[in-house]
Amino acid sequence: MHVYASFFIRPDLREPLVSAFPNVQFTFAPHDVNEEALAKADVLLTYGEDVTEELLKKAPNIQWIFVASAGVEKLPARTILARDIVVSNVKGIHKKPMAESIIGHILALKRAIPWMYEQKKKGEWSQDVRQDELNGSTALILGPGAIGGEIGRLLQKFDVTTIGCNRSGERAKYMDETITFAQLKDYLPKADIVLSLLPKTPETDRLFSYDYFVCMKETAIFMNFGRSNIVEESVLVGALKEGQIAHVVLDVFDEEPLPKTSELWQLDGVVISPHISSRSSLYVERSLAIFKPSLRRFMQGYRNLENIVDLERGY
Amino acid sequence: MHVYASFFIRPDLREPLVSAFPNVQFTFAPHDVNEEALAKADVLLTYGEDVTEELLKKAPNIQWIFVASAGVEKLPARTILARDIVVSNVKGIHKKPMAESIIGHILALKRAIPWMYEQKKKGEWSQDVRQDELNGSTALILGPGAIGGEIGRLLQKFDVTTIGCNRSGERAKYMDETITFAQLKDYLPKADIVLSLLPKTPETDRLFSYDYFVCMKETAIFMNFGRSNIVEESVLVGALKEGQIAHVVLDVFDEEPLPKTSELWQLDGVVISPHISSRSSLYVERSLAIFKPSLRRFMQGYRNLENIVDLERGY
């Protein structure tokens, strides 16, 4: 059994991995592709970005790709499906750091924390600022899956009403109510926070048109921590400039790194989280904690591993 | 019955108050003292800061002071006790906005949110920052009363271990464990977050000496949202400069406004919340929601009102 890891794993995490599997040959190639090792590899450990048609050609024996990330829409799906390669990911490990980032951003805005940082830099004592409260508000969560549920769970503890939105309107955990995409416009006027965690699918493409922002509260916070395709940057910029909404917090962008020329950099009311909301100093450790039992099961011949990705659905 | 209010109450909140009590004469004097009205007042509605010996002399009929604040240590206690004036406050309404501020500050620091704000201003895309997680950490909460309990309740939902600290070591709600002041030094090395909500009493005076900071984790966040007397500013500055702890978040200061000359303004790792953590756009509304039923009870002759303050204990 050959395992090929294409991302950096600290020595203190490598050693226990290697010693836990004495019958496995590991190749750690975080910088350059090791073609010889790749040719023999049965299992690929990756963040996903390097998995191209070309790479797969160099890895004819791959049976399982373990993606230490949540987004899989850039994987060459047809080839993977045709070759019957199992794909699993680590979606479980994103939910806590992401929920903490998202709730941190919301509380910071509600409680005037960015303003405090500015006052500190100016050395100016002032108490002349508006501070609102999170409790009593309503959050609309598009894509109430594992991550949305974790955020919903926490928001409910802050006495926030949670409304989930998915394609079927099927009840989702930690949502006081769940609605369909078709009902969105009726519910947007109630929401203090609109958070998208939607995957990139044809159905979610440019879902948020300008008239959706017109429906929202002028005090609303719009947050996109899913995929950028749900709204055109120019529409978002326009809505904010016109005061249709008060704040935008973005973790995802059509082009990453966000180009220097983007108006988002200049606009007040925009928070740019450079696609790092799920990152954590504990990330690799937690990825390996999912990988290890899966590798054990894989070696026993099982293919129904934890967090299997259905590439036909795209998530 | 005469009620004298010395703080500003918006007209839309005044009107329902006045109409709810047709037999009460209200005086609203948010700017200048109305001596004539004060001389007749039975009840004083105040933020507390204006309640001096002198003011009480001008108000010989006062039987109840409703303080729309939590801190009462500046009230002329001896006179109030000698004249048998009932004092009540609004401590219940601080807990939610304060808990939201405190958890907002913690999450912001853990998830590198201040760094994101700086990058935005510079227009620089980077993912090169350390982000930690709140879940799995330990918080030591000094003064686990109503506010501390609310913070403990929320922190536990973030999978944080909560340790309360009070003088008796008596179990406190939402604390996984409760310890006494004498045990503090044994527990400080475990804490990722040390939060004081202690009132000003002789017992809490300069409780945190330099050696306490030496015990703490180098990554610890020290937060003071109680009263400033627990630690000398120079000790705190020294501990931070030497790297004994990583972050300080302060809502209270020996001198307020914090003087321009204070080193706290200059130091990285310091967050200055200018004594506004409990403020909220809903503050007066919520104060009046406590005041109204108390006024009804007071008019019926009851004196055991909600949130009675024991001035002998000082809180």
Largest sheet of chain A at a glance?
7 strands, parallel
> How much is the average pLDDT of chain A?
95
Oligomer: homodimer
What is the overall shape of chain A? elongated
Give the fraction of residues assigned to helices of chain A.
Answer: 25-40%
- Tell me what the CATH architecture of the largest domain in chain A is: 3-Layer(aba) Sandwich
Tally of distinct domains of chain A: 2
CATH superfamily of the largest domain in chain A: NAD(P)-binding Rossmann-like Domain
By CATH reckoning, the class of the largest domain in chain A would read Alpha Beta
SSE string of chain A: EHEHEHEHEHHEHEEHEHEHEEH
Protein chains sharing the most extensive interface:
A-B, 52 and 52 residues
**What is the SS-derived class of chain A?**
alpha/beta
